[in-house]
Design a protein that fits this description.
Largest sheet: 6 strands, mixed
CATH architecture of the largest domain: 3-Layer(aba) Sandwich
Radius of gyration: 27 Å
Mean pLDDT: 91
CATH class of the largest domain: Alpha Beta
Helix content: 25-40%
Number of domains: 2
Strand order of the largest sheet: 2-1-3-6-4-5
CATH topology of the largest domain: Ribosomal Protein L4, Chain: A
Low-confidence stretches: none
CATH superfamily of the largest domain: Ribosomal protein L4/L1
Length: 211
């Protein structure tokens, strides 16, 4: 499979052949669904907290005597049965939702996600980002406009290597662009982006990482 390579002005300069083992792998919907579920579960802060009887600011006095009234036996108004009382068995911030995702499964999920994007023709490459000496968002916006002219511009994931700091500064101010690190790229980030733009160096790094 071949994908277009653009220069900094948005002009196509060549085509690049993708690695079949990575970008034409068989998609695994079950594995991708699991990857998304694990990612979202690991983002949970577990901050939900309800008040127990010791946290409620109400009197601890017994409502009425234990026997002889014909009514139910109650202690104080902090009990969960009363309006304004405590919560029985409610969530506390001591729980955790972290799930493990083995390395081999992460690799296969990333390959599967990249293959889905490649089959949707949602991957392009930009060359020359290492030549940017001064970050200019105006130039970055011009590139996006030139490449995606006439198309709906939304959810662009720009995959960069760590040494392309000026390129990151130029593109990160654009609201539709999310800068992604090639050495930490996940299947969730790939699937979330509507379009993927790889720096040429980042594509080489990803190919080497997954080969």
């Amino acid at each position: 499979m071949k994908i277009p390579v653009f220069d900094l002005t948005g002009k196509q300069i060549e085509e690049l052949t993708l690695n079949k083992a990575i970008f034409e792998a068989k998609a695994n919907p079950e594995l991708l669904a699991q990857a998304i579920r694990i990612h979202q579960s690991n983002q949970r802060a577990a901050s939900a907290s309800t008040k127990t009887r010791s946290d409620i600011a109400r009197t601890g006095k017994k409502l009425y005597r234990q026997k002889g009234t014909g009514g139910a036996r109650h202690g104080d108004k902090k009990a969960p049965i009363f309006v304004g009382g405590s919560k029985a068995h409610g969530p506390k911030p001591t729980q955790h939702f972290r799930l493990k995702f083995p390395k081999k499964m992460r690799r296969e999920a990333l390959k599967s996600a990249l293959s889905v994007k490649a089959s949707d023709k949602a991957i392009i490459v930009i060359a020359g980002l290492d030549k940017i000496k001064q970050a200019k968002t105006k130039d970055a916006a011009g590139f996006i406009q030139a490449v995606y002219e006439g198309k709906k511009q939304r959810g662009i994931g720009l995959v960069l290597t760590q040494d392309l700091g000026q390129a990151q500064k130029a593109f990160r101010n654009l609201p539709i662009v999310t800068c992604l690190a090639s050495d930490k790229l996940t299947s969730y980030e790939v699937l979330k982006a509507h379009q993927l733009v790889f720096a040429k160096e980042a594509l080489e790094q990803i190919t080497k990482r997954l080969s």
